[in-house]
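Anyone opening a protein record will find just a pair of labelled lines. A complete record is shown below as an example:
=====
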Amino acid sequence: MNCLGPETRIGDHQMHFLRQRWFDAGLALAGGTVAYLFLTHPDGVPRLLWLNRISLCLHQFEEYRQDEQTPYVFPKRSLIPAANKANDSRD
């Protein structure tokens, strides 16, 4: 038995938080990577790899944080107006 109750293991709350907000952590990671790039000024392929990491983190944040969607659910509304009209006609 632990302080959280008989059926709750230590760490369950942290894992639930991480499962629901992993894309927010990715935004913080992208910000840290940008700071690292400004401090080190890498050239060539390493710079491209770091920029790729930043773009991936920002894409995940933009995709999953929009409209407070839960993770692994594709957003119903798009940032592109034409796509919204196509989705509205299917409903």
